[in-house]
Design brief:
Radius of gyration: 19 Å
Distance between the termini: 47 Å
Number of helices: 12
Strand order of the largest sheet: 3-4-5-6-7-8
Structural class: alpha+beta
Bound molecules: adenosine-3'-5'-diphosphate, magnesium ion
């Protein structure tokens, strides 16, 4: 790797490479079918894929950037004996390495960086996707019975959904400096790239402040207001904030990363404290590098320093441009904003 490139560029390039490897781990765990689901809290689950992908990312990055602070959702402390050598990725994406570093980021030192890692965003959709890979209806029913957190309503919607919701799953690596997300990687393990008759799985998108985005072409926003929100963590306050938007359509999809990528929606509204810093750091960096804005429901930016609280207590409001962000912010009633702020 070019040691002459500024550390932000090298770290972003390393993150692009390791995110693809983590995506392969996510697919491999699913193919094996042993998900190893652990309940962390209410509506909050972890699988073997979350744990292994996190070890792959954190070990790979911390070996190369020992002075950066790296924080992962799953808190899986690196243990030399458990990390398979194939999970250590030391190469770096060539396209990102060749980027011109913005002047404001050239002087950033490794110790100034905080990296927020969500090894698998959309765990609910991932575990539900596993059901759909069971072709035998009896096997599928038995697996459903071992997923006590999937309601009958969801089960029926899954049966209608063909491929489940695996496309909603992403791997997120967000890079912050001075509390601000400046670089982000969003990898989609189940994105299908059609090359002739061959299908290659996986796509990686990156964004760097003042430099732009790569790995995809941002679509122009839809003409009418289309909102995206949670599929699996709704509640009456979340619904109230959606009703006031006067939206032409509401798309309910999984994961924080996927909502901002999908290209079909222009605003993401989530009036709930459920998302954490690892859910929003990479998406905020990519969105803002593409001209969008992500704040809480009150319109304030979150801070991404290592000692900041992990929960995004006052919800998420994101839009593809400032105008739509202001529109959505003004529509949310003050009493709802106060209720979240005082929770
Ligand atoms: N009420 C809640 N409890 C736990 N996690 C929540 C939550 N609401 C949102 N989240 C987290 O925020 C991310 C996006 O949520 P959603 O898909 O509902 O929009 C998910 O990340 P993970 O899948 O990485 O855990 C999810 O777990
Ligand atoms: Mg989780
Ligand atoms: Mg997440
Ligand atoms: Mg996660």
């Amino acid at each position: 790797m070019s040691v002459s490139a500024p550390v932000i560029i090298r770290l972003l390039a390393s993150s692009v490479s390791v995110a693809s490897r983590a995506g392969k781990i996510v697919r491999d765990v699913m193919s094996k079918g042993e998900l190893g689901i652990v309940e962390k809290g209410k509506d909050d689950y972890q699988t073997e894929a979350d744990r292994s992908a996190e070890r792959c990312i954190i070990d790979s990055l911390s070996r190369q950037y020992p002075k950066a602070r790296i924080i992962g959702e799953e808190d899986s402390s690196p243990n030399e004996n458990e990390v398979s050598p194939e999970w250590i990725v030391l190469d770096a994406d060539k396209e990102v390495l060749g980027l011109e570093c913005p002047a404001s980021l050239k002087g950033v030192k490794e110790e100034d960086i905080v990296v927020w890692v969500d090894p698998l965003d959309g765990t609910s959709e991932y575990t539900q996707g596993a059901l759909m890979l069971k072709r035998d209806p009896w096997e599928r029913w038995k697996m459903y019975l071992s997923h006590p957190f999937i309601s009958m309503k969801w089960y029926l919607s899954l049966l209608q959904s063909n491929f489940g919701f695996l496309e909603h799953v992403t791997v997120l690596i967000g890079i912050s400096v001075n509390d601000k997300p400046v670089g982000g990687v969003i990898h989609q393990p189940y994105f299908k790239n059609q090359a002739g008759s061959e299908v290659k799985m996986g796509r990686t998108i990156w964004g760097l402040s003042e430099a732009g985005v790569g790995g995809f072409t941002p679509a122009p926003p839809p003409e009418s207001i289309i909102i995206t929100t949670t599929r699996s963590h709704s509640n009456p306050v979340v619904e109230k904030a959606l009703q006031v938007m006067n939206a032409a359509q509401i798309l309910r999809v999984g994961g924080a990363g996927y909502k901002l990528l999908e290209g079909k929606a222009s605003v993401y509204v989530f009036a709930s404290p459920g998302c954490k810093k690892w859910d929003t750091c990479a998406p905020e960096a990519v969105l803002s590098a593409a001209g969008g804005k992500l704040t809480d429901i009150l319109g304030n930016f979150y801070k991404y320093g290592a000692n900041e609280p992990k929960p995004n207590k006052t919800g998420v409001l994101a839009a593809v441009n400032d105008e739509l962000h202001s529109y959505a912010l003004n529509r949310i009633p003050q009493d709802l904003k106060d209720a979240l702020a005082n929770k």
